[in-house]
Specification:
Elements: H1 5-9, E1 30-31, E2 33-36, H2 40-51, E3 56-59, E4 71-74, E5 77-80, E6 86-87, H3 92-99, E7 106-109, E8 114-118, E9 121-123, H4 136-148, H5 161-169, H6 171-186, H7 197-200, H8 211-217, H9 221-224, E10 241-244, H10 250-262, E11 266-268, E12 275-279, E13 282-288, E14 291-295, E15 298-300, H11 304-310, E16 322-332, E17 342-345, E18 354-357, E19 369-377, H12 387-397, E20 407-420, H13 424-438, E21 443-445, H14 456-471
Parallel strand pairs: 1-14, 2-3, 2-15, 3-11, 8-17, 15-21
Antiparallel strand pairs: 4-5, 6-10, 7-10, 8-9, 12-13, 13-14, 16-19, 16-20, 17-18, 18-19
Helix pairs in contact: 2-10, 2-14, 5-6, 11-13
């Protein structure tokens, strides 16, 4: 029987039932800490704890560690699965842990060349949308409302994203910009989303007027948070970015995996936890393949609802609404016409969300020029179109590709639950799960389970600080 597009690709992303049977010695061995979830926050926690002398077990349901920080090869070309770049964290010990011993294998960039496509125009010098691309009347109407908007000063949190955005940017930008993009990416308008929803897509600042006027406006703290420099070079506080010279971003995870083993971390993949046993407000053991693995502390970076269920906590399990991520890899025989490393597609006439142009930040090999085109769609839309054709069409519509360029390779990958929709209900529910989990004294929530960040660098820092606070509180 022919398999659907979703079924064809979901094995890479769903946790699979473990075929590995734990050796009997594990029932006799206890651990100081068990870390569940081997994305980068879990890896960081395991490395920090192990380097502080703790015996650590790192568990992952997927076949490989690293989450979406992985790379893969198709027809001799290397693509990244999700996140493309690494960043220094600004914490010396943590940066040494993450990057030492890999120095010669990295390319370092002072900043990323990020652009955007909005209102039918490609902006190659800034990732912020440019309101001057509107009509004169539209530009000044949006500008006037944005500069006169009072901002949010109430002691309470806004009811939803709409309430906050109107207070920060005015009604016109909500109607013209925010709501159409939210509908494209989440299927919902701002009145149904959490008030931090725009931060998830880095939709904070707009280019207005001209460069000189912008420099004056940004002297005001109020306007600085809403107005963007016209060119990325005018921003002085970029954080350097790193990309491996070989193997794609997945090479970083390969190097970190070696560090885990060198530090004595017991790493297990393809694992399904059957039960988490507790006693007197403490986690005592985890049941895997019918065997109890004792632990003195649990670091958890998977879904908190799952943790509560495994502990037998009586909670109403409300499913978080997810969008699916579709990644289309394209390889052409000619160099792209844009020098951007990646482009965020904010134009709602196009379906794509982001385009990454690999040869703009890594060396071209064999005359191949590749891109990943990313879509965020409702799960029931996956089967509805030829995503590879749409990706190629939209790259050409945006003027990224030479008209004479020939497509020499294409493929599609689907991440079924790639993007959670930040509705108020889901945020409140996740907060309640986290509160219940934290009522157990030796549970430490990290990664997205913590509810204390979204962007990878923030989650890495949070995992590090949580780990240090547990084992070395005097030096956190």
């Amino acid at each position: 029987m022919e398999r659907s597009l979703l079924e064809t690709h979901q094995e890479d992303f769903f946790a699979v039932k473990s075929e590995y049977k734990f050796a009997g010695y594990l029932t006799m061995k206890d651990y100081d800490f068990t870390i569940v979830g081997a994305g980068l926050p879990g890896i960081v926690a395991a490395l920090v704890l192990a380097n502080k002398g703790q015996r650590c077990l790192l568990l992952e349901t997927a076949p490989n560690i690293g989450g979406l920080l992985r790379s893969y090869e198709v027809d001799g070309y290397t693509f990244d699965l999700g996140t493309h770049f690494a960043n220094f964290t600004g914490i010396d010990y943590l940066d040494d842990l993450l990057f030492s011993g890999i120095g010669g294998d990295w390319e370092e960039y002072p900043f990323l060349a990020a652009g955007n496509f909005w209102n039918g125009r490609l902006n190659e010098v800034s990732e912020s949308p440019d309101l001057t691309s509107l009509s004169i009347e539209g530009h000044y109407k949006c500008l006037g409302e944005m500069l006169s908007a009072p901002g949010w000063h109430d002691h309470r949190d806004p009811e939803n994203a709409k309430e906050l955005l109107i207070s920060e940017y005015g009604q016109t930008l909500v109607d013209l910009f925010f709501d159409p993009i939210f509908e494209k990416l989440t299927g919902k308008k701002s009145d149904s989303l959490n008030h931090r929803a725009n931060l998830l897509f880095n939709l904070k600042r707009f280019s207005v007027l001209d460069a000189n006027a912008t420099f004056e406006l940004k002297k005001s703290e109020k306007f600085d948070s809403r107005v963007a420099f016209h060119h990325r070079k005018d921003f002085k506080f970029h954080r350097p970015c790193l990309y491996p010279k070989n193997g794609g971003i997945g090479n970083w995870i390969g190097q970190l995996e070696k560090k885990l083993y060198a530090a004595g971390v017991d790493v297990r993949t393809n694992v399904q936890i059957e039960r988490v046993d507790t006693h007197n407000g403490m986690v005592r053991s985890l049941s895997i393949d019918g065997k109890a693995i004792e632990t003195k502390g649990l670091f958890w970076s998977a879904a908190t609802a799952t943790l509560c269920k495994l502990m037998g906590v009586d909670v109403e399990l409300i499913r978080t609404e997810f969008r699916s991520t579709i990644l289309v890899g394209l390889v052409f025989d000619r160099k792209f016409l844009s020098e951007c490393d990646y482009i965020t597609v904010l134009d709602t006439k196009l379906t794509s969300f982001r385009v990454t142009l690999y040869e703009n930040f890594r060396e071209s090999k064999f005359g191949m020029f590749g891109a990943t085109v990313e879509f965020i769609v409702a799960p029931d839309k996956i089967e509805n179109c030829d995503w590879a054709r749409v990706a190629e069409d939209e790259i050409r519509q945006m003027g990224l590709c030479d008209i004479y360029a020939t497509l020499i390779s294409q493929h599609v990958k689907v991440i079924p639950n790639g993007f959670p929709v930040q509705s108020n209900k889901s945020i409140a529910t996740l907060g309640e799960y986290a509160r219940m989990a934290r009522s157990f004294n030796n549970i430490h929530l990290i990664g997205r389970a913590s509810g204390e960040g979204w962007f990878l660098n923030d989650l890495i820092r949070q995992a590090y600080l949580t780990s240090i606070a547990v084992v070395d509180p005097q030096n956190k």
